Amino acid sequence: MDIPRPIEPEDIPPLLALNNEHAQALSWQEPAQFDALLSTAFHTRTIGPLGAPAALLVAFDETAAYDNPNFRWLKAHFSTFVYIDRVVVAASAGGRGYARALYDDLRAASKTRLVCEINVHPPNPGSVAFHTKMGFREVGRAELDNGKTVAYFECTL
After folding, report:
1. What is the pTM of this model?
2. Which residues on adjacent β-strands are paired with residue 151?
3. What is the pLDDT of residues 8-58, one digit of tens each?
4. Does the first or last residue of the chain, that is N or C, have fewer Cβ atoms within 10 Å of its Cβ?
5. What domains are defined for the chain?
């Protein structure tokens, strides 16, 4: 199985495309916005060949200057955390354990709880099932200005 690795410059265009293929769940990114996201994150990893990655994880710790409603909710409720902002695996790489490998890699780099949000409306039952299996539990909900309802999940290490 492929293992998580740092993101290289050649990976950024295909990772941006992968992100934007899943914009409903992740949020659309323009190139400069995506570069800023990656450069300010606590932890970024990918899996797959250089220039043709198949998965992405981006996480921020509580010290980040990240203007995001989900991050703000989590910061108001936890003093220390690592926020999984986005994780995505290409459809062609599904079922290979890439999401689990990315999470295991993040756990090894973290010393505190992992947190994330999952869409409840529109629903994302696959993500809820995955996170529950990985040891996450729901700790709250919020309705966002964009009409989405999200559930917040935590996994203590």
Report:
1. 0.94
2. 118, 141
3. 999 999 999 999 999 988 889 999 999 999 999 999 999 999 999 999 999
4. N
5. 9-155 (3.40.630.30)
